[in-house]
Amino acid sequence: MTDPLSLFHPLIRKWFSEQLGTPTDIQAQSWPRIAEGRHVLLTAPTGSGKTLTAFLWALNRFATGAWAAGATRILYVSPLKALNNDIHRNLIAPLEAIRAVFHAAGEAFPEVRVRVRSGDTPATERRRMLKSPPDILITTPESLNLLLISAAGRDSLRDLSVVILDEIHAVAGSKRGTHLITAVDRLVPLAGEFQRIALSATVKPLETVAAWAGGYVLGETGYVPRTVELIRSRAVKSYALRVRYPAGESAVSGFGRPPRDRQGGIADPGGGGAPVGGAPGGDAPQDGWTVMAAELKARIADARSTLIFANNRRLSERLARLINDGEAVPLAYAHHGSLSREIRAVVETRMKEGSLPAIVATNSLELGIDIGALDQVILVQTPFSVASALQKIGRAGHGVGQTSRGLLFASHGRDLLDAAAAVRCVLTADLEETRMVEGPLDLLAQILLSMAVSGEWTLDRLYAFVRTSHPYRHLPRSHFDLVMEMLVAGSRPLAFANSNPA
Fold this sequence. Notes:
Distance between the termini: 53 Å
Oligomer: single chain
C-alpha cells in the first residue's frame, strides 16, 4: 500500500511523522478515500485516531491553499457539549503545532479559526460567529437546527465543504438522530453537495447507518442514494474485564432505604464469597451503597486516576458524596449534563492534570472526551446497552494498542446476570442493532415549520425535498398533507405557495 502520508503537504507529513509516528490502520485506509472526496463511514475502536482522521485532510486543504480561510468550510457535529469543547481543545493543539512547523520552515500557514456553538455558548459569542463565521464550526444537533432558522445562520453555512458526524451511534436510532440528519440534508440547498464523514466505534448494522448518513439526491429519474463507503478498522481491541456483585439476598437496589444483606458486605465470587467492607463480628449492618462506596474508595486509593460510571445523575452524586465522606480533600467529583459548563470543565481539567483521583459520571463522559490517561474504569450497575458498556470501558486504555480495563459492580442478582452478559458481548463485539426511527410525524411538524420560516416552498417541492432524508424516504403523501393541515389550521401566515396535493 502507498504511504497515506504522501497525500499530504510535506510539512504536515513532517509534523505527523515526528509527533505521532505511523498512521493507524483506520487512518491508512481512510485518507486515500477522503482525499478523493468520497462519503465515508469510519468505524474503529476507541483511541484509534478517528477524529484526527476526519480533520487532517481538511486542514491539509487549508495548508495547500485549496480552501481559502475566512468562511466556514468544516462543520463538526457531536451529541455532547462536553465532547465539543474537548474536540475544540484537541484541534487547537495540532493546528498550533502545524503552524509552528510551517513558520520554522519559512512558509505561511493560514489563520484557521475554530469555534464552538452550543447551548453553553454566550449570546455575544454566537452573534460574533454569525458576523464572522469560523473556518471550523463545532456544534450539536440542536444548535445546528437553530442556525437553520435564522437568515444569518443559514448564510454562515453556505460555503461548507465537509460535514463530520461524530459518535453517530449515540443518536442514529433516536428522534434526535432524525433531527440531526434532516438538518444536514437541509444544508444541501444552501451549500450544494458536500463531503459527509461519519464516525463511530460502536454501531451496527453498518450498511443501514451508512444509508442513514448519506440520504438521497433527487434527480430527474427519481431518488438516488448517496454512496457512503464503509471503512472498518482491522485493529483488534484488547479488554481485561471483571465482575463483582453484592452478597446476600437483597443487595443494594434501593435509594431511600436500600435493602441490606445480613453482613452488609459485597462479595467477590472469585474470592470465595467473603464480604468486603462488611460489619465485623455481628455489628449493625451497613447501608449497601455505603459499603460499595467504601470499596470504591479503596480502589481509587490504589490507582492514579479512576473513572466511575453510574446510570443516572442521582446515583452519580450520591456515590461521589459517599466516597468523599471523611476525606479532608475530595477524592471524586460528580459529572453529568445538568452541571454548568464551567463546573464540567474544571472537573475534566483536574482529572486530566492528575489533581483529581476520580470522577463519578453519567454518560456525559461516555464518548471520546479526553480526560487524560485512566488507570481503571468502574461501572456501577450494568449499562443499558452493550454499545454503552463498550464505550465506557474504552475510556481506559484509550491509546492505540492499549488494553482497556474495566470492573462492573452489579447491585443485585438480576444485575449480575446482565453484567456477565454485557462482558461477554463486549469481548465478542456482539452489539445491539441500531433501529432507525421511521418517519416521526411530530418531528416532521417541527421540520416543516422551520423550513417555512426560512423560505418559500410549494407543497409538492417541499414534500419531494423532505423525502431526501433517510427517515422520511417512505413518507406517504397523505401523512405529509395531514401534518400540513394541522400546521396551517387557524393560521395562514406560513410561507407556502398554493399547490394542489399530488
